[in-house]
Specification:
EC 2.7.8.7; alpha+beta; AASDHPPT_N; 11 strands; 4-PPantetheinyl_Trfase_dom_sf; magnesium ion binding
């Protein structure tokens, strides 16, 4: 897994130069945002995806083809399975100060980052009550009985990012009912999920605290659970139990912080762009 933290830069003039290095079809996903901070997050998200593919699979930057399903889930179009990465897939998330990416060689992977921020014009209880229908009775009781207002918000965001990590892993759209998922845990360790009331042994979850009140939820699960549109993009979904468990029980690695400079590709003869990367601080 790898992560990239949102930098203070790049300034707007350099920002345009970096955007121009991406394939043409990627640029509208960045420039559609009105706020410059949102454009920066979208840009770093794209750079992370290309940097990850280049680092893990060794595909040159200008040969990487990343597309998206109808639900918007990104996938590598020209990635071929190998002994080490028979089902390479990745997921990206950004919120607050962080942009992150996670990848897996066999299992589906979902990542969701949330920034724990207090509501400005309503109490913590009133705020979380707007989302009560997305939680089971067990989850909701744990949230509203967590303690102080801040503890209620923390509990809410922990459940929320795990649910989002799951639906992002399987590649479904907004119509998936989050109350179908019930997360159980012991002090937020040994996290498991019940789907439609039945505990699933095909999934593992992690909850990581980042700096400045940010949380990252990570889901790892079986490729056969992917939505149809996403499953068709995978190299394989027919792993036997031994193969699948070899991926499911891989050790979870820590996030690695990367600077924006590290994500920018070195210009080639096909990319006739001068880029003063020393200005990215």
């Amino acid at each position: 897994m790898a992560s990239g933290r949102l930098s203070v830069g790049p300034p707007e003039d350099l920002f345009s130069s970096v955007v121009s290095l991406l394939p043409f079809h990627e640029r509208p996903f960045i420039t559609r945002f009105l706020k410059f901070e949102d454009r920066k997050r979208a840009l770093v998200s794209r750079l992370l995806q290309y940097a990850l593919v280049r680092e893990v699979l060794g595909i040159p930057f200008d040969e990487i083809i990343i597309k998206r399903t109808v639900e918007g889930k990104p996938y590598l179009e020209n990635g071929k399975g190998s002994l080490d990465f028979p089902n390479f897939n990745f997921n990206v998330s950004h919120h607050g100060d962080y942009v992150g990416i996670a990848s897996e060689p066999i299992c589906l992977v979902g990542l969701d980052i949330v920034s724990h921020s207090a509501p400005k014009q309503e109490s913590a209880i009133d705020f979380v009550s707007n989302f009560s229908s997305y939680f089971t009775s067990l989850e909701w009781n744990n949230i509203i009985n967590a303690g102080t207002s801040d503890e209620i918000l923390v509990e809410f965001y922990k459940y929320w990012c795990l649910k989002e990590a799951y639906i992002k892993a399987i590649g479904v759209g907004l119509g998936y009912r989050l109350d179908r998922l019930e997360f159980r845990h012991i002090g937020w360790a040994n996290i498991s999920v019940c789907i439609d009331g039945e505990e699933s042994m095909e999934w593992r979850f992690w909850l990581l605290e980042l700096e400045k009140k940010h949380w990252a939820g990570i889901a790892r699960g079986h490729p056969k659970r992917a939505a149809d549109s996403y499953r068709r993009t995978l190299s394989r979904d027919d792993f036997n139990d031994e193969e699948y468990c070899s991926g499911l029980f891989l050790p979870n690695t820590d996030f690695m912080l990367r600077t924006i400079e590290q994500l920018i590709p070195v210009p080639t003869s096909r990319q006739n762009t001068t880029l003063p990367v020393e200005r990215l601080e």
